[in-house]
Design a protein that fits this description.
The chain is of the alpha+beta class and 158 residues long. The protein has one domain. The chain has a four-stranded antiparallel sheet with strand order 1-2-7-4, with no helix packed on it. The chain has a three-stranded antiparallel sheet with strand order 3-6-5, with no helix packed on it. Helix 2 packs across helix 3 and helix 3 runs antiparallel to helix 4.
């Protein structure tokens, strides 16, 4: 199954004010850069863990017939248009008999983002902001491990 975002959620997982407070930044000169890193963290989590942080609408195309249940490519599912039965866990599953080629409109994400995922976004944002140019592969790897450790408890990988 493939998915694409059809209605993005323009809110961020953490606010600009939260990120700036975390990084102890008071001026506004770099606000655009900080927002870029917040969105980059969210996108990384979506692509790496198939996990939508904020309620977002996706188009999911069924690529082969489903008989019984199948794992959806995005989680946690809030709703699926058309009355389909689903589980909202991680991973989320669709239940029933569904033909290949069927297109679903799926809303997925957290109504309240867990604190450790917010912390992951703050960590990623801060590290990318303060270390824009990796000065060593070991340092970059260390940053990634802390971030990955926080997000690995959520979502799933293909």
């Amino acid at each position: 199954m493939q998915y694409e975002i059809i209605q993005p959620n323009n809110e961020t997982a953490v606010t600009l004010a939260e990120a700036k407070k975390h990084m102890r930044i008071t001026d506004t000169e770099q606000d655009d850069m900080i927002l870029l890193y917040i969105r980059t963290a969210e996108n990384f989590i979506l692509r790496r863990r198939n996990l939508a942080l904020k309620p977002t609408q996706f188009k999911v195309t069924i690529d082969k017939d489903i008989t019984g249940e199948a794992v959806l490519p995005i989680c946690p599912v809030i709703s699926i248009d058309g009355g389909y039965t689903f589980t909202s866990g991680q991973p989320s599953k669709i239940i029933g008999n569904i033909s290949a080629g069927t297109t679903l409109t799926v809303t997925a994400g957290f109504n309240q983002i867990p604190f450790d995922l917010k912390a992951a976004v703050l960590l990623y944002t801060s590290e990318r902001y303060w270390n824009r140019e990796a000065n060593s592969a070991a340092k970059l790897h260390q940053i990634e491990l802390g971030f990955i450790d926080l997000i690995n408890h959520y979502g799933w990988t293909t």
